[in-house]
Specification:
Belongs to the UPF0145 family. It is built from 2 helices and 4 strands, in the order ββααββ. With about 110 residues, it is of the alpha+beta class. The protein has a single domain, classed as Translation Initiation Factor IF3 (2-Layer Sandwich), CATH 3.30.110.70. A 4-stranded mixed beta sheet has the order 1-3-4-2. The longest helix has 24 residues.
């Protein structure tokens, strides 16, 4: 499956637009990861726990979107947009949503 943020695929022609497809993933970040990330904020450096949680959520959201496109028998997803949100200030939930247009290519 070709997945791109552009509105076309170089060297291929879009012959049919099949509709919007989306994927979402909500991940909780546990208290220990929060605690160690707070320490990193004080001393500097990268918050590896959060990075891993974001990566996992992004991969899950993309997998859901691609599954939706396969159900439509799409060859590609174009115009992909990725959004990140924190759900609630205190609950430690991360939302990653992705969406794009499923297409058939020639």
């Amino acid at each position: 499956m070709i997945v791109t943020s552009t509105d076309s695929v170089e060297g291929r022609r879009v012959v049919e637009y099949l509709g919007m497809v989306a994927g979402e993933a909500v991940m909780g970040v546990n208290v220990f990861r929060d605690m160690f990330s707070s320490i990193r904020d004080i001393v500097g450096g990268r918050a590896g726990g959060y990075q891993a949680a974001l990566r996992d959520a992004r991969e899950a959201a993309f997998a859901d979107m691609e599954e939706a496109a396969r159900a439509l028998r799409a060859d590609a997803i174009v115009g992909v947009d990725v959004d990140y949100e924190v759900l609630g200030k205190e609950n430690g939930m991360l939302l990653v949503s992705v969406n794009g247009t499923a297409v058939r290519l020639s």
